[in-house]
């Protein structure tokens, strides 16, 4: 059976374009999900590349346009399924959310919890958008492979990969627990290999408790990694509303390198050039730091990609007249590197001055909390 999604059916040696049903509008008409299926030798694996789940994040769309070419298909062992507009309403209105679902669309993928027998009348039922992601998730489950979900972080941020934490169920018998843990460790190792092939900087997601509290396990990549055990990465491609052509080029090259890692493309890995690839020499996680302690105007002393050592001055803090506040300078409490400056320079107390990559001593693979599936 050829791979099919919506009205697009894969054909060897061809790029096919079309769409899948998405969300129907109450005023007539509907949103559709744009679909591109590029197939070389159909006996090879599947690679999913998705973009545009957050409406102001546009670099991934350009990356898909650069990646999916006739030249790629000629050499391709397998099938690339590219979905450039995972949130058509958000992209149309340049908003992070779809106007018909109140909440982050990248927290709507399945989490493996059983559907309650009786719906809770005080809870909203799954929205039309959540149902659409559920249907797409079933298609991802059917065809398998690996997945790259393309995003943008902050204005001027470094191009980097978010590596999800991987969870396993620890509530079965000993054999089941062992099997679950081995499967989680395997997908985590595959993700590490994908990151090495991609060749951009990488950062671990936040610690497990915060990660789950923010429903990050319901992101595109976490759902693929945890429920389907597909290696899946979130690529953060710098500025979203004005993509940096160097990052777009380096991301397309990095994705081709992932295809080489997956044995879907022949040839040597391409060098990743034209972008900063900071590396602290130890695994890092994201953290907003340092924080302001008084109302102030911040003069950042560092740029995205700069390495930082503990105690280093990272920003001057002044009042609106330009006089140093009591603190004068903010210093870093961590070794690591700068992912991005926070947007703006005028802050109330408690604001994060930088997005930083700091040492991550926490395990990348761990059991779900005891009550997670209750
Ligand atoms: Zn995003």
Report on this model:
The chain folds into 2 domains: 4-114 and 127-277, Zn peptidases (Aminopeptidase, 3-Layer(aba) Sandwich); 284-359, OB fold (Dihydrolipoamide Acetyltransferase, E2P). The chain is 25% helix and 29% strand. It has helices at 59-67, 70-75, 88-93, 128-143, 174-198, 208-213, 220-227, 245-261, and strands at residues 4-5, 8-9, 14-24, 30-39, 41-51, 77-83, 146-151, 159-163, 166-168, 201-204, 232-237, 284-288, 296-300, 307-308, 313-318, 324-331, 336-341, 346-347, 354-359, 365-367. An 8-stranded mixed beta sheet has the order 3-4-6-5-7-11-8-10, with helices on both faces. Strands 12-19-17-14 form a 4-stranded antiparallel beta sheet, with no helix packed on it. Helix 1 crosses helix 8 and helix 5 crosses helix 8. It is globular and about 70 Å long. Zinc ion (ZN) binds next to loops.
């Amino acid at each position: 059976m050829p791979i099919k999604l919506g009205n697009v059916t894969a054909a060897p040696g061809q790029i096919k374009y079309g769409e899948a049903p998405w969300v129907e509008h109450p005023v007539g008409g509907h949103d559709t999900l744009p679909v591109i299926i590029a197939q070389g030798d159909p006996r090879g694996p599947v690679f999913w590349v998705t973009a545009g789940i957050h409406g102001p994040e546009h670099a991934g769309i350009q990356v898909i346009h650069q990646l999916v070419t006739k030249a790629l298909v000629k050499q391709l062992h397998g099938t690339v399924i590219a979905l450039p507009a995972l949130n058509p309403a958000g992209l149309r209105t340049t908003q992070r959310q779809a106007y018909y679902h109140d909440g982050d669309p990248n927290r709507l993928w399945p989490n493996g919890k059983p559907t309650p027998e009786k719906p809770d009348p005080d809870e909203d039922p799954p929205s039309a958008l959540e149902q659409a992601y559920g249907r797409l998730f079933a298609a991802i489950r059917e065809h398998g492979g690996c997945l790259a979900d393309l995003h943008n972080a902050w204005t001027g941020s470094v191009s980097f990969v978010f590596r999800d934490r991987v969870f396993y169920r620890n509530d079965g018998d000993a054999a089941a627990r062992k099997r679950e843990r081995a499967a989680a460790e395997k997908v985590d190792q595959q993700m590490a290999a994908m990151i090495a092939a991609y060749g951009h900087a990488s950062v671990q997601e936040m610690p497990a408790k915060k990660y789950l509290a923010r429903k990050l396990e319901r992101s595109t990549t976490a759902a693929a990694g945890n429920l389907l055990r597909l290696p899946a990465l979130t690529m953060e491609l710098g500025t979203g509303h004005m993509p940096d052509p160097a990052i777009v080029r380096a991301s397309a090259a990095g994705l081709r390198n992932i295809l080489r890692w997956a044995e879907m493309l022949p040839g040597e890995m391409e060098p990743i050039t034209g972008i900063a690839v900071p590396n602290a020499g130890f695994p890092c996680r994201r953290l907003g730091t340092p924080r302001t302690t008084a109302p102030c105007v911040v003069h950042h002393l560092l740029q995205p990609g700069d390495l930082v050592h503990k105690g280093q001055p990272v920003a001057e803090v002044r009042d609106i007249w330009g006089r140093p506040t009591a603190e004068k300078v903010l210093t870093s409490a961590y070794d690591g590197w700068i992912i991005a400056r926070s947007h703006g320079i005028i802050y109330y107390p408690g604001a994060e001055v930088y997005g930083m990559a700091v040492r991550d001593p926490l395990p990348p693979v761990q059991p779900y909390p005891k009550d997670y599936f209750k």
